[in-house]
Amino acid sequence: MSAESILFYCVKIFAAIVQRLPLTVALWLGRMIGLLGYLFDHRHRSLAYANLKIAFAREKKTSEIKRILRRTFENYGQNLIELLRLPVIDPQTYIKVEGREHVERALAQGKGLIFLAMHFGSWELCNFIPQLFHHPYKVLVNPQKRYSRLDDLLNSYRQKAGAGLLNPGVSTRAFVQTLKDNEMVGMVVDQGGKTGNLVKFFGRDASMSTGAVRMALKLDVAVCFCVLIREKGYHRLVIKPQLELVKSRDAEGGLQQGLSGIVRLMEENIKQHPSEYMWFYKIWKYSKESTIVVLNDRKLGHLHQSLAVAGQIQRALAQRAIQSRLEIIDIEFKSKARERVFSGVSFASHRRVSQGRLRYLKWFLQRKSFLEVMSVKGDFVVSCGASTAGVNYFLSQDYRAKSIAIQKPGILDLDRFDLVVLPEHDRSVFYARQKNVLYTKVAPNLITQEYIQSQSDQLMMKFPALRHLKGIRVGVLWGGESKHHAIPASLAKMVMDQLKEAVESLDGQMLLTTSRRTSRETDDTIREALRGFDRCIFSVMPNHHNIVEAVGGILGLSDILVVSSDSISMVSEAISSGKKVIVFKPEKRVLGTCKHDVFVEKLSVQGHILVSEAKDIGHFVCRVAKEGLVTKPVDQQEDIFKVAQEII
Predict the structure, then answer these.
(1) What's this model's pTM, rounded to 2 decimal places?
(2) 145-162 per-position pLDDT tens digit
(3) Is residue 258 in a domain?
(4) Is the residue at 565 inside a domain?
(5) Is residue 4 very low, low, confident or very high in pLDDT (cuts 50, 70, 90)?
(6) Is 459:557 a contact under the CB 8 Å cutoff?
(7) Is 540 domain-assigned?
(8) Which residues form the domain of 408?
(9) 603-617 in b/e burial notation, b at 16+ Cβ within 10 A?
(10) Where are the alpha helices (DSSP H) in 355-488?
């Protein structure tokens, strides 16, 4: 016996049983079936919860959304029981009609009537409309080719209730003839699929079916929106007044206006009875709008990496004609201790229980961060570094959003994310090659030729003297203090003395920026070294006064770049600029090899940088300028773009 036959006989036997049970017992059984679905059907529960969050995140608490979710499953179980009991239900006592006069008024016109509904309440009870109104009624049904015998069984129940059936493949002529015979036709408006029109539904574009409104406008047929609402012991069939559809010269304009009005009615009823709607499908799947949430740990280098990846996601979305916007949320923990505890909580959380747990973040995050995380609605969540990886995981689980982590996500497994962009220096021997991991030579960054040209132009607008650069231009990017490296004042003075001497000998000019991690002592040493050195025509120290275009402008205006190896972000940006790059080593604070050493060594072997000890930096600058030494740039934008295309 085939699987289809087994399913057919199981449903037929089960239907025979529930048809013989008392109504209250049968409905209780339906609620229990729904409860089992709620407990064990993780896929549909997860999808429905995410949909409810998108619709009600700003209006309802998580606990209330969970209650609605459970009730939705229970209602769906009861709906199933009522479908199987169609042959034995007495509609005159089980369904109370409100708005009967609207039907009578529409049929009096002699052009038929379209009952327009959504997947709300026990909609299968609409098959009793012929018995309730003593007038022919037909409904469009989608045939289930995979389970044709089961489909025939359920259709027989619908026909016993009184409804006639129209296949969606029926000719337009037959459909029109049904209306010309002044009969009623039932259609649904939600779930428009690929061919539907996009209409704002709870603030986001959702695909709505156009057939009913298009036909009504063309044939001047009345349309009444209706909903079935479950009450204690019976249902209310609420029929709204005839829709006022407006014909216009622009047929699509009239269609869209009509759909917008219908969606407002849908929202109104769903808000009143949220557990009656069927939340189990991808409501906003065909939306042409998308939101990318960037979690910012307030480290500029990490933010730039996140924005670089987010930019490629935007590019991939634009290729599909999807508009996107960025939302940046600053993630601040209440303390380092709570950050570590949260890391452990994230590691211990399982996918099946992590959804719907965002409210627990209030114990770990500062209030502003917590409120922003709770209110954001993201389709993609991007984070960089270990501290924000856990928040990324929980937030993406809540909305079933695509999660993208950059760098090692702390102690979390890589397979918790849809995509991990992992620079080679972060790769562990414990990481096997995984489909969701993109290994890159350098840290993702915003640097492209267009970007550095734009930044250079903006910098020159602020500082017109930069328009008159001459000779060899040496750009200096200083990092700062870290747990692995230090740049004491003595080292800073030595490097600056050598760079000044090299620039003098080359008859060149210098452009310089430090970073926020540069110590105040080092900043003071550099400032003192530059006093009276007129060949340094631009310098900025972000700890005192930041200029947003400083790094990009220096990358664009320099011929040779000198970078301290402690800043992986700065080294990555320098290599991506296409310029000649020299990296000097600051003092180490710890024994052994750290990831910065591995990073620099690999790039040196591959010819992307020249590595110098701090005491030899001036010599290296002169060699590169005089001997024409070159380094190979890295461009990994297309690699990131390709994986972005895959995950959307």
Answers:
(1) 0.86
(2) 777 888 888 889 999 998
(3) yes
(4) yes
(5) confident
(6) yes
(7) yes
(8) 289-440
(9) beeeebbbbbebeeb
(10) 367-375, 389-399, 449-462
